[in-house]
Amino acid sequence: MAAATQERNLLAVIGDEDTVTGMLLAGIGNVGQNQKKNFLVVDSKTQIPNIEAAFEEFTQRKDIAILLINQHIAEKIRPMVDKYQEPFPALLEIPSKDHPYDPNKDSILKRVQKLFGE
């Protein structure tokens, strides 16, 4: 498992414009071979199949260690997020400027609480 995690050295983000811009300014942006990006900016015009495709792509890529997704965007593809069980890339739901974090909606937190018997 250690060898498999050594090649995972990127963060990916699916988020609103402010979140993605902040992450890019922090240095997580990467445009690799074939112009593959490690981020998706979601706005009101972004179709749900595009979000699902990005989620699927990012969770299948072998170079991504952590996938950050705004919680309000995760709500749009909740069945996919809830079904995701792999340890890598780790999936983290994060708040955005306009949408506060709600722990009751976070499927990963629910799994951790279940694991600890809470």
Short description:
The chain has about 120 residues and is α/β, with parallel strands linked by helices. It contains six helices and four strands, in the order αβαβαβααβα.
Mean pLDDT: 90
Helix-and-strand structural type: alpha/beta
Strands in their spatial order, largest beta sheet? 2-1-3-4
Query: What is the overall number of helices?
Result: 6
* Terminal CA distance: 29 Å
Q: How would you sum up the major sheet?
A: 4 strands, parallel
Share of residues in strands? 15-25%
The radius of gyration over CA amounts to 14 Å
Instruction: Indicate the low-confidence ranges by residue numbers.
Output: none
How would you name the oligomeric state of the polypeptide chains in this document? single chain
Name the shape in a single word: globular
Order of helices and strands: HEHEHEHHEH
The portion of residues assigned to helices is 25-40%
Write the layout of secondary structure elements.
Blueprint (H helix, E strand, L loop, with lengths): L1 H5 L3 E6 L1 H9 L13 E3 L6 H13 L3 E7 H4 L3 H6 L6 E5 L12 H9 L3
Parallel strand pairs: 1-2, 1-3, 3-4
Characterization of this structure:
The chain is of the alpha/beta class. 39% of the residues lie in helices and 18% in strands. It has six helices and four strands. Strands 2-1-3-4 form a four-stranded parallel β-sheet, sandwiched between helices. The longest helix has 13 residues, at 48-60. It starts with a helix and ends with a helix. 23% of the residues are buried. The model has no long low-confidence stretch (mean pLDDT 90).
